[in-house]
Amino acid sequence: MIGRLQGKVAEKQPSWVIVDVQGVGYEVDLPLSVFAGLPVLDAPVTLWIHQVIREDANLLYGFTRLEDRQLFRELIKVSGIGPKVGLAIMSAMDSRQLLRAIQHEDLQALTRIPGIGKKTAERLLVDLKDRLKSWQPQQMARLELPTGALLPDADPRAEAEAALVALGYKPVEATRAISAVESTDLDTQGLIRAALKGLAR
Predict the structure, then answer these.
(1) Coil, helix or strand for 59?
(2) 4 near 46, Cβ under 8 Å?
(3) What is the percentage of the chain residues whose pLDDT exceeds 70?
(4) Which residues form the Helix-hairpin-helix DNA-binding motif class domain (predicted)?
(5) Per-residue pLDDT reduced to its tens digit, 13-35
(6) pTM
(7) Burial code of 133-150, b = ≥16 C-beta within 10 A, e = fewer?
Protein backbone atom coordinates (compact mmCIF):
# COMPACT_ATOMS: atom_id res chain seq x y z
CA MET A 1 0.00 0.00 0.00
CA ILE A 2 1.13 3.55 -0.72
CA GLY A 3 1.31 5.57 2.51
CA ARG A 4 3.21 8.66 1.40
CA LEU A 5 4.37 10.31 -1.82
CA GLN A 6 7.31 12.69 -2.08
CA GLY A 7 8.01 14.29 -5.43
CA LYS A 8 7.21 17.37 -7.51
CA VAL A 9 3.93 18.97 -8.52
CA ALA A 10 3.49 18.08 -12.19
CA GLU A 11 -0.07 19.33 -12.63
CA LYS A 12 -2.90 20.44 -10.38
CA GLN A 13 -6.59 21.26 -10.45
CA PRO A 14 -8.97 22.07 -7.57
CA SER A 15 -9.81 18.42 -6.90
CA TRP A 16 -6.56 16.62 -7.77
CA VAL A 17 -2.81 16.83 -8.28
CA ILE A 18 -0.30 14.78 -10.23
CA VAL A 19 2.85 14.15 -8.21
CA ASP A 20 5.94 13.25 -10.24
CA VAL A 21 8.00 10.73 -8.29
CA GLN A 22 11.18 9.93 -10.23
CA GLY A 23 9.39 10.14 -13.57
CA VAL A 24 6.19 8.37 -12.53
CA GLY A 25 3.09 10.55 -12.21
CA TYR A 26 0.65 9.66 -9.44
CA GLU A 27 -2.82 11.21 -9.68
CA VAL A 28 -4.06 12.05 -6.20
CA ASP A 29 -7.52 13.31 -5.24
CA LEU A 30 -7.52 16.14 -2.70
CA PRO A 31 -9.80 18.13 -0.44
CA LEU A 32 -9.85 21.82 -1.35
CA SER A 33 -7.92 22.73 1.81
CA VAL A 34 -4.97 20.68 0.56
CA PHE A 35 -5.23 22.06 -2.97
CA ALA A 36 -5.11 25.62 -1.64
CA GLY A 37 -1.82 24.87 0.08
CA LEU A 38 -0.06 23.17 -2.83
CA PRO A 39 3.19 24.76 -4.01
CA VAL A 40 3.80 25.96 -7.56
CA LEU A 41 4.39 23.59 -10.45
CA ASP A 42 7.71 21.70 -10.31
CA ALA A 43 8.10 22.50 -6.61
CA PRO A 44 8.64 19.64 -4.13
CA VAL A 45 5.60 18.29 -2.33
CA THR A 46 4.94 15.56 0.22
CA LEU A 47 1.50 14.02 0.67
CA TRP A 48 0.22 11.45 3.14
CA ILE A 49 -1.81 8.96 1.13
CA HIS A 50 -4.93 6.92 1.76
CA GLN A 51 -5.17 4.26 -0.95
CA VAL A 52 -8.34 2.49 -2.08
CA ILE A 53 -7.94 -0.52 -4.37
CA ARG A 54 -11.00 -1.71 -6.27
CA GLU A 55 -11.47 -4.09 -9.17
CA ASP A 56 -11.87 -1.19 -11.59
CA ALA A 57 -9.68 1.47 -9.99
CA ASN A 58 -6.68 2.23 -7.78
CA LEU A 59 -7.47 5.50 -6.03
CA LEU A 60 -5.18 7.77 -4.03
CA TYR A 61 -6.33 10.47 -1.62
CA GLY A 62 -3.74 12.97 -0.42
CA PHE A 63 -3.22 15.15 2.66
CA THR A 64 -0.40 17.44 3.72
CA ARG A 65 -0.61 16.41 7.38
CA LEU A 66 -0.83 12.98 8.92
CA GLU A 67 -3.57 14.21 11.26
CA ASP A 68 -5.74 15.19 8.29
CA ARG A 69 -5.39 11.72 6.83
CA GLN A 70 -6.35 10.21 10.19
CA LEU A 71 -9.44 12.40 10.33
CA PHE A 72 -10.38 11.39 6.77
CA ARG A 73 -10.05 7.73 7.72
CA GLU A 74 -12.33 8.27 10.70
CA LEU A 75 -14.90 9.96 8.46
CA ILE A 76 -15.08 7.13 5.93
CA LYS A 77 -15.63 4.58 8.70
CA VAL A 78 -19.06 6.15 9.21
CA SER A 79 -21.84 4.29 7.41
CA GLY A 80 -22.82 6.12 4.22
CA ILE A 81 -19.64 8.20 4.06
CA GLY A 82 -17.36 7.14 1.22
CA PRO A 83 -14.12 8.80 0.11
CA LYS A 84 -15.94 11.22 -2.23
CA VAL A 85 -18.21 12.50 0.53
CA GLY A 86 -15.28 12.51 2.95
CA LEU A 87 -13.38 14.83 0.61
CA ALA A 88 -16.45 17.06 0.26
CA ILE A 89 -16.67 17.36 4.05
CA MET A 90 -12.98 18.22 4.40
CA SER A 91 -13.28 20.67 1.49
CA ALA A 92 -16.17 22.58 3.05
CA MET A 93 -14.60 22.76 6.54
CA ASP A 94 -11.02 22.73 7.69
CA SER A 95 -10.10 20.08 10.25
CA ARG A 96 -10.40 22.39 13.25
CA GLN A 97 -13.88 23.53 12.18
CA LEU A 98 -14.99 19.94 11.61
CA LEU A 99 -13.70 18.76 14.98
CA ARG A 100 -15.34 21.72 16.67
CA ALA A 101 -18.67 21.02 14.93
CA ILE A 102 -18.55 17.41 16.09
CA GLN A 103 -17.47 18.32 19.62
CA HIS A 104 -20.31 20.86 19.99
CA GLU A 105 -22.85 18.73 18.09
CA ASP A 106 -23.37 21.50 15.55
CA LEU A 107 -25.86 19.78 13.26
CA GLN A 108 -26.53 22.96 11.28
CA ALA A 109 -22.87 23.39 10.34
CA LEU A 110 -22.67 19.82 9.05
CA THR A 111 -25.89 20.00 7.00
CA ARG A 112 -24.53 23.03 5.14
CA ILE A 113 -21.98 20.73 3.49
CA PRO A 114 -23.01 19.59 -0.02
CA GLY A 115 -24.22 15.99 0.07
CA ILE A 116 -24.77 15.90 3.84
CA GLY A 117 -28.40 15.65 4.92
CA LYS A 118 -29.76 15.68 8.44
CA LYS A 119 -29.62 11.90 8.93
CA THR A 120 -26.03 11.68 7.71
CA ALA A 121 -25.02 14.61 9.91
CA GLU A 122 -26.64 12.97 12.93
CA ARG A 123 -24.80 9.74 12.18
CA LEU A 124 -21.51 11.64 11.96
CA LEU A 125 -22.08 13.20 15.36
CA VAL A 126 -23.02 9.91 17.02
CA ASP A 127 -20.19 7.90 15.48
CA LEU A 128 -17.38 10.42 15.75
CA LYS A 129 -17.87 12.41 18.94
CA ASP A 130 -16.53 9.76 21.33
CA ARG A 131 -14.07 8.28 18.86
CA LEU A 132 -12.29 11.58 18.21
CA LYS A 133 -11.93 12.41 21.91
CA SER A 134 -9.01 10.01 22.09
CA TRP A 135 -6.77 12.16 19.88
CA GLN A 136 -7.77 15.65 20.93
CA PRO A 137 -6.30 18.14 21.72
CA GLN A 138 -2.84 16.93 20.67
CA GLN A 139 -3.77 16.59 17.02
CA MET A 140 -5.93 19.71 17.08
CA ALA A 141 -2.90 21.75 18.10
CA ARG A 142 -1.23 20.71 14.86
CA LEU A 143 -4.26 21.07 12.60
CA GLU A 144 -3.71 24.49 11.11
CA LEU A 145 -4.49 25.57 7.60
CA PRO A 146 -1.77 24.63 5.11
CA THR A 147 0.24 27.37 3.51
CA GLY A 148 1.88 27.35 0.14
CA ALA A 149 2.43 29.35 -3.01
CA LEU A 150 -0.12 29.17 -5.77
CA LEU A 151 0.88 29.77 -9.34
CA PRO A 152 1.73 33.44 -9.83
CA ASP A 153 -0.90 33.79 -12.56
CA ALA A 154 -3.55 31.73 -10.78
CA ASP A 155 -6.99 33.37 -10.62
CA PRO A 156 -8.44 32.61 -7.16
CA ARG A 157 -12.00 33.28 -8.34
CA ALA A 158 -11.69 30.94 -11.32
CA GLU A 159 -10.14 28.27 -9.11
CA ALA A 160 -12.89 28.72 -6.51
CA GLU A 161 -15.60 28.37 -9.18
CA ALA A 162 -13.98 25.19 -10.48
CA ALA A 163 -13.78 23.86 -6.94
CA LEU A 164 -17.50 24.46 -6.32
CA VAL A 165 -18.33 22.64 -9.55
CA ALA A 166 -16.13 19.77 -8.38
CA LEU A 167 -18.22 19.69 -5.18
CA GLY A 168 -21.37 19.16 -7.25
CA TYR A 169 -22.74 22.66 -7.79
CA LYS A 170 -23.91 23.73 -11.25
CA PRO A 171 -21.54 26.12 -13.07
CA VAL A 172 -24.12 28.92 -12.98
CA GLU A 173 -24.57 28.41 -9.22
CA ALA A 174 -20.82 28.46 -8.68
CA THR A 175 -20.38 31.65 -10.71
CA ARG A 176 -23.22 33.37 -8.89
CA ALA A 177 -21.93 32.33 -5.47
CA ILE A 178 -18.37 33.54 -6.14
CA SER A 179 -19.64 36.80 -7.64
CA ALA A 180 -21.64 37.42 -4.46
CA VAL A 181 -18.48 37.39 -2.34
CA GLU A 182 -17.67 41.07 -1.81
CA SER A 183 -14.16 40.77 -0.39
CA THR A 184 -11.42 41.24 -2.98
CA ASP A 185 -8.45 40.05 -0.92
CA LEU A 186 -9.47 36.44 -0.23
CA ASP A 187 -7.41 33.54 -1.53
CA THR A 188 -8.96 30.51 -3.23
CA GLN A 189 -9.83 28.73 -0.01
CA GLY A 190 -11.29 31.87 1.56
CA LEU A 191 -13.48 32.44 -1.49
CA ILE A 192 -14.72 28.85 -1.39
CA ARG A 193 -15.70 29.09 2.26
CA ALA A 194 -17.42 32.45 1.80
CA ALA A 195 -19.31 31.11 -1.22
CA LEU A 196 -20.38 27.97 0.66
CA LYS A 197 -21.76 30.11 3.48
CA GLY A 198 -23.77 32.08 0.94
CA LEU A 199 -25.08 28.94 -0.73
CA ALA A 200 -26.17 27.54 2.64
CA ARG A 201 -28.44 30.51 3.41
Answers:
(1) strand
(2) yes
(3) 88
(4) 73-92, 108-127
(5) 888 999 999 999 999 999 988 88
(6) 0.70
(7) eeeeeebbeebeebeeeb
